[in-house]
Amino acid sequence: MQRTRFGDMACSIARALDVIGEPWSPLILRDIYVGVSRFEQIQQDLGVSRKVLAERLKWLVESGVLKRRQYSDRPPRYEYTLTTKGIELCDLLLVMVRWGDRWLSGEAGPPVRYLHHGCGRIGHVELVCSECGLPMHATDVDVLPGPGAA
Amino acid sequence: MQRTRFGDMACSIARALDVIGEPWSPLILRDIYVGVSRFEQIQQDLGVSRKVLAERLKWLVESGVLKRRQYSDRPPRYEYTLTTKGIELCDLLLVMVRWGDRWLSGEAGPPVRYLHHGCGRIGHVELVCSECGLPMHATDVDVLPGPGAA
DNA sequence: CGGATCAGTTCCTTCAGGGAACTATGTGTT
DNA sequence: AACACATAGTTCCCTGAAGGAACTGATCCG
User: Fold this and answer.
1) What CATH number has the domain bearing residue B80?
2) Candidate from A91, A102, A149 with C-beta closest to B138
3) pTM
4) Which of A72, A100, A133, A122 is nearest to B142 (CA)?
5) ipTM of the assembly?
């Protein structure tokens, strides 16, 4: 980790970073999301060192984002799956993808596309307000102190 | 950074992490978004080391997320502002906040709330499909190879 | 028995982060 | 003129995290 722990700050961004802010963690989450769910597979797919991978998986399981499941008794074999908390965290990945596609994919175009089950079309995520359904971006909101303010 | 650079991977998540994935970067972005825009202010607000803060600001400017603007000639004083690319990156923060509020804020409730200009109510972001407007979460899509695939 | 697979753990080296001190430039104060 | 003060960094040393390769242990295959 990055030495300073963010988990105790009165800031949901900092707390979220405490869970998935470490190097490789979002990519590990992505792999498990798309079905690359075993230690060896993830290690080879990402090229992350085995040491770091073991540390990250342990932390993500402790944080309740992943579950470690034994899918074979003999020989003992394990896979990692997403919890509900982890699945919802994947929303973050979709938004990262959207931004990366727009600003960093260059000539070649986006490396992957997303087929939406709801309409059967290729699309991307848009952010809307939970209350009125209109677009809700950083410029469309005012930040106010909440009940859990410092 | 975390030794291994992610910028060359054929993955928009990895590319986005290359820009914003280093420790402190999302918190620096948040500070600038809410108006904490000068070196001293950010350093004191976050408690980040001056060395790391200088490195991150430099990289975020090089990446086109921030602009360094001189707002006083004598004495020379600077502030950091968001580019369009940077403002759009703040969408990511809104989604992180939403997840952190839901899963990590505990008893006290969310530390901040968001007032939506569009409807004047306190709300949070929801993800919908750009094509049909229906909810679009990680479980609602299939991942397909795109033109820029590896 | 030897070799292969999976899931890690251990070890060593290098480099990034923490933290304090220092620099540079200009302002206001006595 | 001398001094403190503010901003925006830079430099230094020390510690700890990441990279990478080797090693462990359990089990199956031929």
Assistant:
1) 1.10.10.10
2) A91
3) 0.95
4) A122
5) 0.94
